[in-house]
Amino acid sequence: MPEATSEERLKKRLTTRFWKAVATYHLIDEGDKILVGLSGGKDSLFLLEMLASRMHIAPKNYSVAALHVRMENISYKSDTSYLQDFCQLRGVTLHLRTTSFDASTDTRRSPCFLCSWYRRKELFNLAQEMGFNKIALGHHQDDIIHTTLMNTFFVGNFSTMPARLRMRKMPLTIIRPLCMETEEDIQEYALLKGYQKQEKLCPYEHDSHRDAIRQLFTQIETISPEARQSIWKALNNAGKMIED
Questions:
Q1: pTM, full prediction
Q2: CA-to-CA distance for 163 and 22, rounded, in angstroms?
Q3: Sheet strands (E) in the chain
Q4: How far is it, in rounded angstroms, from Cα 72 to Cα 57?
């Protein structure tokens, strides 16, 4: 039997982790209507590809649609025609919405926070208008660990973005099926699959604590290769990955 290629091993590793996360944290139920937040970056494209690959087949029958939110006052742009083709090829309906925010109305918050908050608001609004019960976001394991470190260092709170979060004020659950994936593997897969890069990146992309924490965690992993699994184990032991 021929030996698997590096691309085949990568795909198997990603697929195994994805569905292990779905099973471990009970992210998908029979009949779910899932709305994917499709930014146009590699993570959300991969998330949509994985969810679409098993729609309407056993053991769970669920449906998937996507929303791409354009922000008028931030020069962050994706090719919407590419996103439409990407979704259509996978049998997924793509919704497009445009919004904006005024950073001067809340100077206590960074533009990154406000942009994220208004995009999330559009996701919540569309989900409720069209009867979706779950929203899938493309945060991977690196994002979750970086958030843990940020909250620990800057807020004094051991918490993170959970794999499953049931909203208290609306009938929606946020799921993060990429929670066991590494950014390195997704990046490699995106290059192999030829995912189209965003036309313009956010001007605030590297203007935050998150970028500094990303660099710090890279150094930590150099010192202690087990750091990733240790933090992940601590999050699970403390019950931080599920909030119902």
A1: 0.93
A2: 9
A3: 33-37, 63-71, 93-99, 134-136, 164-166, 173-175, 242-243
A4: 39
Determine the Cα–Cα distance for residues 143 and 53; give it in Å rounded to an integer.
Answer: 24
Which structure tokens are listed for 66? Answer: 């996507």
Q: Is the dihedral of CA 183, 184, 187, 192 positive or negative?
A: negative
Radius of gyration of the chain from Cα atoms?
A: 18
H-type alpha helices, 76-165: 80-89, 111-130, 141-150
DSSP code at position 105: G
- Flag the least confident range among 39-48, 57-66, 90-99, 193-202: 193-202
Whether 52 and 92 have beta carbons less than 8 Å apart is answered as yes
Say whether 91 sits in a helix, a strand or coil.
Answer: coil
**CA-closest candidate to residue 21, choices 177, 234, 135:** 177
In this structure, the dihedral spanned by the alpha carbons of residues 104, 107, 110 and 111, taken in order and rounded to 10 degrees, is 0
